[in-house]
Design brief:
By secondary structure, the chain is mostly helical. It contains 6 helices and 2 strands. Strands 1-2 form a two-stranded antiparallel ribbon.
């Protein structure tokens, strides 16, 4: 999905070449995964000659938000606090990231 979001639209070959730059992967694996993502509604495809061109059916922001909400619901019974505490305490967030998060929370609480 990231490769398609980054490009806006992509063919299987586009995604294959992007992934191949990072690790060894079979072209058929990429094709299978893109077909699965299309079948599940995450991608749309259209024919362009003999090639299919894929595009995301949802923005990265919308999809990520949905995934995070689902994760928080399933793993933390709907409360994001334990996730944030874990990230801060296990030092997964830098001081700068914590400061940015605090500013965003304050801005969200008092949007003036």
């Amino acid at each position: 999905m990231k490769a398609v979001w980054d490009r806006g639209t992509a063919t299987v070959r586009d995604v294959y070449e992007a992934l191949l730059a990072e690790r060894r992967i079979a072209y058929t694996t990429v094709m299978t995964m893109m077909n699965v993502l299309e079948r599940k509604g995450h991608l749309r495809k259209r024919a362009d000659g003999r090639t299919f061109v894929y595009e995301p059916s949802r923005s990265k922001k919308d999809a990520l938000g949905s995934l995070v909400r689902d994760f928080v619901t399933r793993v933390f019974d709907g409360s994001a606090e334990p996730l944030l505490v874990h990230l801060v305490e296990d030092e997964h967030l830098s001081d700068k990231e914590v400061e940015t998060l605090v500013r965003r929370i304050r801005r969200h609480r008092d949007p003036r």
